[in-house]
Amino acid sequence: MTRLMTCIECPQGCQLSVGVDGTRVISVTGNKCPRGEKYATQEVEAPMRTLTTSVLTKGLELKMLPVRTNKPIPKEKLLSAMEAVKRITLTSPVKTGSVVAENFLGLGVDLVAARELGKQQ
Amino acid sequence: MAKRELVIVGGGPAGMAAALAAKESGVKDILLLERDQHLGGILNQCIHPGFGLHRFKTELTGPEYADRFVKLVKDSPEIEVSLRSFVVKLTGEKRISYLRPGALEEIEARAVILATGCRERTREMIPIPGSRPAGIYPAGLAQKMINMEGWIPGKEAVIVGSGDIGLIMARRMVLEGMKVKAVIEIQKTSRGLVRNVVQCLEDYGVPLYLSHKITKIHGADRVEKVSVVEVDENFNEKPGTGFELACDTVLVSVGLIPENELLEMAGAEIDRKTNTPVAAEVNLTSIPGVFACGNACKVYDLVDWVTRDSEKAGVSAAKYLQKAEGEQ
Predict the structure, then answer these.
(1) Interface pTM, i.e. ipTM
(2) Ordered structural domains, chain B, with CATH
């Protein structure tokens, strides 16, 4: 079976034609770089996405801190991850890359700060 | 009146890249004026990934991309950053007036780089008839509300226009628990990047109606619903194709316009159609020694190219200053 998909790894958005046998990828064509083949394989086997959102803060310079998972998480976990993010309130200053939640949801990824944020002046 | 070598208006990606490049090219006295309380500009609210693939060969979020430049700027003694500083006036003689908390400052620059970005087109700029209830937002404003202020604009949204900001906001609103009923695009194809159609709409089952337009926004105090109709290739309504979508929020994502009010004030020539400076080359304006870069110069779809071109503006300003020095 051939599955058509658009690579989302970069803004080029290559149109991929993916030969699939069940959940196994046999061939990938249409990709302009090796990332396309990796993406197609992952997308067929288990789609992953990086979650980016923001968490509430208290006593810091901005009301919200932008955060991201430091690695992609399974696509079907995105909404439950958002539920967990809503329960977080950050009260201490962070540097870019500081861990906000370790081993987030037991998924083996950390939720990290996407910017520096100091105390409210 | 205090004199400065180079004054840059706007501390977003364009202004920071220009400042750093000017410094590298030998300019020793750079004043970077930013109206917000932080550097970074619009990147601060663009919390999604997708930045820096060309520049840094890795995928960053907006704040992470900004952070890399903020650090370099802060480590540069040649660059003085003045935050909460809003430029209200620029003259053809490169005199600048700006407000900062507690003071109105007036300075004279030998060269100026305008990195003032762009503004969103609004509902008023596209014909959508109907009432004027609460609940209609430019997509970028909704982005700031959700990502930076922690406010959710409503419960059920319809997005007008398929620009990248609208597509990205569709995903944001779904993740924040809102229902996104549809994205309505009058053209035959999406205006945004195809990857955003895939990862922001298809991933979450948000329908994209191409060759459709909103014919009316209904609601007295708050948006209640919108009327939608299919259009033909001449954008005429196809009879019998109309339907309604109940919603309390409408996001308008119909493009950006370069912001060049200061340049206009200074008497530079502006292209009325695109609102961009008229000049022989990118980054130049019709006033010698006044440069424009980033989205003020032309609307970019990737920040990586904003950085690349704005660095050229910094280099051009440095060359201009060196040449002016030699002539004195």
Answers:
(1) 0.90
(2) 2-119+256-327 (3.50.50.60), 122-252 (3.50.50.60)
